[in-house]
Amino acid sequence: MTASGRSDGFAGGKIERGAWFEIPGVRVGHAQDPVARTGCTVVLVPEGAAGGVDVRGSAPGTRETDLLDPVNLVQQVHAVVLSGGSAYGLAAADGVMRFLEERGYGLDVGVGRVPIVPAAVLFDLAVGSAIRRPDAAMGYAACEAAREVPERGRVGAGAGATVGKALGYERAMDGGLGTAAVRLPGGLIVAALMAVNAVGHVVDPETGRVLAGPKGKDGRPLDTLALWGEGAVPGGLLPGTNTTIGAVVTNARLNKAQANKIAAVAQDGLARVIRPAHTMYDGDTIFALSTGEVEASVDVVGAFAAEVVAQAILDALP
User: Fold this and answer.
1) Whether the bond into 118 is cis, omega within 30 of 0
2) Which segments cross the bilayer (predicted)?
């Protein structure tokens, strides 16, 4: 486990901002191009995990999310990809599929195995280079770099993330990729990693203080809603040019329907700290993965999923 030293917790379990508690069978890897300021992150669950997703923003870029619907056939996924590069970045999932196929993982279809790899992307083409994006090679490299405790900061899908675009990209602040986790009595673990690239600003949920957002003339972050209330409109933005994406991972025993519920409730954590959230300019997407070792209440898992998502977003800020 790594931790930033900040705990936001409740009796019976401390939420550790910047932490990641190891869950058997789960590894996380990043690959990035620091010059182009883009990258991808993969959550590997090669033996399979129940998966769910909630897409709340109005400009998403996703792959294989339909199969996570509980009415559809496939019951488990083998990885989830979070990527920069806008829709181009979905190609990173091809490399993840190749990595898993080479090692014999995937859905048995009789003539071979097909790895199930849902993905979501954020837009970072306006920083660094617009012509160098995550691809299959970068997805494969992220798998090779996977470890039990992930790195945080300007890595992977957070390499080119920015926050607060109400006054245009030139007045935005850096985002990044953050983590948070909690261990509860009975061995239940709920962890989140989030790549924060919001059009809105990020606040401290306890005080309402703006932590990152569009920069004023003095360099301090401003309140997006206050700017809009004064008549400002998003500067130079098009739909799909932002987006906060992430994943909640738990060792709770959940089915697909329950994993989808966890992903939906986890979006509450995003809305607590990003204002506004789920705009026409964002494609906010959260995955949920369950490895199934511990019996747990869906309500308990969901409640803490929202909390760790909020803290992971705060952790993503430089």
Assistant:
1) no
2) none
